[in-house]
Amino acid sequence: MPQLALAQSFWDGYEKVEKPVRAGVKKAMAKFQQLTVAELHADKGLHLESVENARDQRMRTIRINDFWRGVVLAPGPGDESDIFLLVNVLPHDDAYGWAAKRLYSTNSATRGLEVRNAVAIDQLTPLYEQAARSAPQLLFAKISDGALRELGVDNQVLRAVRSIVDKAQLEAFATLLPEDQLEVLQYLAEEFSPEDVYRDVVAHRRPADAPAEHVDNLATAVANTPARIRLIAGPDELQEALDQPFAAWRVFLHPSQRRVAYRTSYGGPVQVTGGPGTGKTVAALHRVKHLLSRDESSRVLLTTYTNALAAGLRDSLDLLLDGDEKLLRRVDITTVDAHATGVVRAHDARAPQPVGDREQRHLWTNVVRRLNLPFTEQFLAQEYRHVILGQNLRDRVSYLSAPRRGRGTALGPARRNLLWDAVELFEQSLRKGGEITHLGICARAADLLAEHGPTHQHVVVDEAQDLHPAQWRVLRAVVAPGPDDIFLTGDPHQRIYDSRVSLTSLGVATAGRSFRLRVNYRSTEEILTWASKLLAPVTVDALDGDGHDTLAGYRSLLRGGRPEAQGYSSQQDEVAALVEQVRSWVDGGLSASEIGVCARFNLLLDKAEKQLKSSGIPVLRVRGQARASEPGVRLSTMHAMKGLEFRAVAVLGTTAGALPFAREITPAEVDPLQHEADLLRERCLLFVACTRAREALRVSWSGEPSPFVAHIEQAGSR
Ligand SMILES: Nc1ncnc2c1ncn2[C@@H]1O[C@H](COP(=O)(O)OP(=O)(O)OP(=O)(O)O)[C@@H](O)[C@H]1O
């Protein structure tokens, strides 16, 4: 029997077809596993036939039913491979048109199989060449033909490359060019050197044992392309692949994701960063799978920032591990705070109750009043969080000599003494009430873990950018330092809580084990470009606290409409326009649950909810992950949007008064550094909200727009 493989492009079509067509696909596919090659060719029902005028002589189509055909790539003449690759499912005429234009080839550098629209490239190139003659500069002028060939660029693509004047034109070519070659060009366009591109892109795809001269063999090329092609081992696997709701991320990892997730072992903590939607969570989940497979007795702690996100991770891991209870039992999935509380309670069932932010603020206000202090409650709370809990300072003497990194006002010994008096009174008040802060619980848990020893073999941390040093100390104490102890993923551009860390000083040194993901799988390039402009005016500290982070090379493979930014004269008009927008998204084929609406405050969400409901649109208020099966447009605060995604997102109320929200901003005269940090946090919050959108993004305000959006070109007023 021949081998069968399914290309990622096949799923794009398969996902969209109705059930009876799917049944037809399954039936046809099963034949590839039951019949010999000769029998396949002879089978009347399958009707395996070549495609007239095809650019690729290996193209075949098969009959699914009277209306639908599958497109299949077969080995060419002289190719001994015994494999068929299903690449698409399309209506009859489209299938022939699609197949005739496509050319599959083996990349000379990566040795992977890639596909191009050869006809469209041939048609476009002469037009672009003409325009290029009068262009002041060409995008790839500095890169020699030799360097491009080394990176796998072939003749047809090279000619096209020499006609490209700018990034916009490269993007216009994007859907036509062969995948690996396109990726190489995108990195070069971002000014990565050919050597870097070889190291970061080509070397990771090229098989270690690739012969110097490549022989065109379909089976080998397919085996070299795990990021885009799935080999099907037998009937059971075929059944499973076609029956499960298809989650591409389970199967097709980008080489950069696969590299970080499935490296056999790391010498110590590993850090994976990347912009929103680059598959960090996916990489973390695959790492958990890998770690579980390595040692049958190991336990993994998988943490994230909120309970809702933890619930989402649980569902995803269940899917990735095929519901294997034995494996799932070896993973604890929780937030750091919940885990710390569990550790403390396990030792002392009567441990104090955690208090929320509001109550803490209230306590600090009392402290200021009772001691008649020259500080605001905000200043004290920040000093306590960043300096005292941040460095785990337990007594006055340590505090008096502690560095105050990140704080923008000097405190002499007399003032520090006063401040410590305040801390003592604050902690005393908590104790009296049988209470403790969340970070206090973390500190206690870290002590207990240090005393009693590690509980897990591996810790995997998602959304690592928002963890406080006290939380890191818990994680550090959960595992013994050593190989594969900590694997963390995060994006410092999405830091929306006020945490500053130096990971190295907390015993989580990732130097030499830091990786970056750059391909966004969630949002269109248009959404990314718009959202990235929000952060353009600022620099962002690196995840480990050492230097800065950047979104260089961050890009999407998806294309779509431009985001809309729109101002209104009143909130009422803004909400009315939202209702219209939601209606038009629904009319355009989106289900209500695929739409997310968010705002900085619940008050505006209340208004939106009322208006949507009275227009007959179902609504669901979410505090995190809502089950896909629950109907209704999701309404959420910006903070609760973290980690979620929707096909369409409306961000409401981006006004000057809400973003930045004055109450959350420390006045510059109180602490200039904290002032800047607060502003950045608010900016990141808007960035997080906007990058939840997959296909459509709409940002609106009434009255004066937020300064964060005002400078972006589309901002206009009605
Ligand atoms: N290799 C892949 N193939 C297909 N889809 C993928 C792949 N990797 C990630 N995705 C999809 O891209 C989206 C974003 O992935 P994920 O949530 O892991 O990104 P993230 O980097 O953690 O995002 P954020 O930081 O914004 O929360 C998800 O819908 C995920 O299923």
Q: Can you give a write-up of this model?
A:
With 718 residues, the chain is of the alpha/beta class. It is 43% helix and 17% strand. The chain contains 29 helices and 27 strands. It has a 7-stranded parallel beta sheet, covered by helices on one side. Helix 25 packs antiparallel against helix 28 (672-690). The protein is globular. 45% of the residues are buried. Residues 248-249, 252-254, 257, 274, 276-282, 491, 494, 521-522, 643, 645, 691 line the site of adenosine-5'-triphosphate (ATP).
Short description:
With 718 residues, this protein is α/β, with parallel strands linked by helices.
* DSSP strand content: 15-25%
Total helical segments: 29
- pLDDT < 50 stretches: none
The average pLDDT score comes to: 91
Radius of gyration: 28 Å
| Percent range of helical residues | 40-55%
Using the alpha-carbon principal axes, give the shape. globular
The hetero molecules present are: adenosine-5'-triphosphate
Distance from N terminus to C terminus (CA atoms, Å) equals 65 Å
Please describe the biggest sheet, giving its number of strands, its sense, and whether it closes into a barrel.
Answer: 7 strands, parallel
Q: Which structural class fits the helix and strand makeup? A: alpha/beta
Adjacency order of strands in the biggest sheet: 23-24-22-25-26-21-27
Annotation, overall tally of beta strands: 27
Which features does this protein show?
alpha/beta, 718 residues, single chain, binds adenosine-5'-triphosphate, 27 strands, six-stranded mixed beta sheet
